[in-house]
């Protein structure tokens, strides 16, 4: 298990993901009936994914505030975002739901957003220094 010092990009990507995801969770949990009618998506789907997103947001906030992170945890978040995108596409492609045009846009925008978040988080992970490296010990080049 490698500990890393999260790069600025990784922290920003986690915070932006948490903000966007939190907004979706609040929307889905606050007005599931209206949203279900507007998007033509099942109310249960909106409630269940909204509840999951609350837990995910809490994880992202804790990660964004942490001084050190396990690289496997960041990779799990990146993979999870990728799987969420695949799930969104599969939901639309399989005909498991019959959303209206706004529902298709809502699900498609989630898929696109999480791909962007995953990419930024992956790049942020790549820019992060190992916790035991000189960058993690306060060492400055030329000091």
How would you characterize this protein structure?
The protein is mainly alpha-helical and 143 residues long. The chain has one domain. Helix content is 73%, strand content 5%. It is built from 5 helices and 3 strands, in the order βαααβααβ. It has helices at 8-30, 32-39, 43-65, 71-93, 101-127, and strands spanning 3-5, 69-70, 129-130. Strands 2-1-3 form a 3-stranded antiparallel sheet. α2 crosses α3. It is elongated. 26% of the residues are buried. Residues 137-143 have low confidence and may be disordered.
Write the layout of secondary structure elements.
Blueprint: E1 3-5, H1 8-30, H2 32-39, H3 43-65, E2 69-70, H4 71-93, H5 101-127, E3 129-130
Antiparallel strand pairs: 1-2, 1-3
Level of helix content? over 70%
Number of strands: 3
Portion in strands: under 5%
Flag low-confidence runs: 137-143
Radius of gyration: 18 Å
Chain-averaged pLDDT: 93
**Structural class of the helices, strands and pairings?**
mainly alpha
Count, helices = 5
String of helices and strands: EHHHEHHE
Biggest sheet, strands in spatial order? 2-1-3
Q: Please tell me what the overall shape is.
A: elongated
Q: End-to-end distance, in Å?
A: 30 Å
Largest sheet, strands/sense/barrel: 3 strands, antiparallel
Number of domains: 1
